[in-house]
């Protein structure tokens, strides 16, 4: 076989196969917080399937579990503590201004 005859043949490279994020024994449930928290961003958003490397069925189950946990107050809907601090500080300063008048 000449290389000129097969220009599109890819070179064989070894690659390390990544472990699946959910093992077969893991239960996808709203109570399994250690599992669910791996699929949420720092802001509290549900990460996409490409980022999570999940199957479609697993992603659907994770999404449902996260939403159930949010409704039962096990997870926050938003996780932006810095914004809350800003709102509180501005509310305090505006409240002081109105009292002084």
TrEMBL record:
Entry's Gene Ontology cellular component terms: chloroplast; mitochondrial small ribosomal subunit
Domain of life: Eukaryota
SUPFAM superfamilies, sorted: Ribosomal protein S18
Cited InterPro entries: Ribosomal_bS18 (IPR001648), Ribosomal_bS18_CS (IPR018275), Ribosomal_bS18_sf (IPR036870)
Localization per record: Plastid, Chloroplast
HAMAP family reported for this sequence: Ribosomal_bS18 (MF_00270)
Assembly and binders: Part of the 30S ribosomal subunit.
NCBIfam families linked to this entry: S18 (TIGR00165)
Protein name: Small ribosomal subunit protein bS18c
Lineage of the organism: Eukaryota, Viridiplantae, Streptophyta, Embryophyta, Tracheophyta
């Amino acid at each position: 076989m000449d290389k000129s005859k097969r220009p599109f043949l890819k070179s064989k490279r070894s690659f390390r196969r990544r472990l699946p994020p959910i093992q077969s024994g893991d239960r996808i449930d709203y109570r399994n917080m250690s599992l669910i928290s791996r699929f949420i961003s720092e802001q509290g958003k549900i990460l996409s399937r490409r980022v999570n490397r999940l199957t479609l069925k697993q992603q659907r189950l994770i999404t449902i579990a996260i939403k159930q946990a949010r409704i039962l107050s096990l997870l926050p809907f938003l996780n932006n503590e810095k914004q809350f601090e800003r709102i509180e500080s501005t509310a305090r300063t505006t409240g002081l201004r109105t009292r002084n008048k």
